[in-house]
Specification:
This protein is an alpha+beta fold. The protein has a domain of 149 residues: Mannose-Binding Protein A, Chain A (Roll). It is 35% helix and 22% strand. A hairpin with an 8-residue loop joins strand 6 and strand 7. 28% of the residues are buried.
Length: 218
């Protein structure tokens, strides 16, 4: 029995170590997925300053409840207001390398046809909010990707930027089109740990009982 317990403890230690190593490669998030009742979708903001290509790849690699993510689409003023309330105060450029205002990539682009802005998901454009002070979009053939600026001169609005390293790197917002969220992986790990703890304590009680039984027969 001791051998089985030690084997289980070694497996548990390996699982914990693997989980910890995977966390090193998880994008930096300053929130957890939050749901907007307006459409049932979940959203999460990531503050790593990355190029638009890296933001797209990261969003699509993040699976929530079996649904892949994508850079956020904003279909209404109400949806935008929700994003502002949840993520508007986050610092998307903590080292102040690329912007002086909290700014994040969204899934808006005119890369396919200059001046014709569309959502990367292919859904129809039903709402826009280009920043009035910046006069966006004004980047021509160079700036083909959209972002949301949460506070520039006290105004929230969208801007167009170049997406490569010579343009800028921003944080980004991911959206999942789903209406239910599974148990987080951290809870699963905790459950495994609790099972291991219970297993060890149960065996310990058995060993103590056997020892007491031997003493009693003496």
């Amino acid at each position: 029995m001791r051998g089985k317990q030690r084997q289980f403890e070694r497996i548990l230690t390996s699982v914990c170590a693997l989980y910890g190593s995977l966390l090193m490669f998880v994008p930096t998030s300053q929130a957890v997925p939050v749901q907007w009742v307006g459409n049932g979708h979940f959203y999460e903001a990531f503050t790593d300053p990355v190029t638009i290509g890296a933001a797209i790849a990261s969003a699509e690699s993040l699976i929530l409840g079996g649904a892949p993510g994508h850079l956020v689409t904003i279909a209404s003023a109400e949806e935008e207001a929700f994003l502002i309330s949840q993520f508007g105060s986050l610092d998307f450029d903590p080292e102040n390398l690329y912007t002086i205002s909290p700014t994040a990539w969204i899934g808006f682009t005119d890369i396919n046809s200059e001046g014709t802005w569309e959502w990367m998901t292919g859904e129809p454009v039903t709402y826009t909010n280009w920043h009035p002070i910046l006069g966006a979009p004004n980047g021509g053939l160079i700036e083909n990707y959209g972002d949301i600026i949460f506070d520039f001169s006290g105004v929230v609005g969208w801007n167009d930027r170049a997406g490569d390293l010579n343009g800028c790197c921003l944080g980004y917002i991911v959206e999942w089109e789903m209406s239910a969220i599974p148990e987080p992986g951290a809870r699963l790990l905790l459950a495994v740990a609790l099972v291991g703890l219970g297993y060890g304590r149960r065996n310990q009680r058995r060993r103590v009982s056997r020892n007491r039984l031997v003493v009693f027969h003496k």
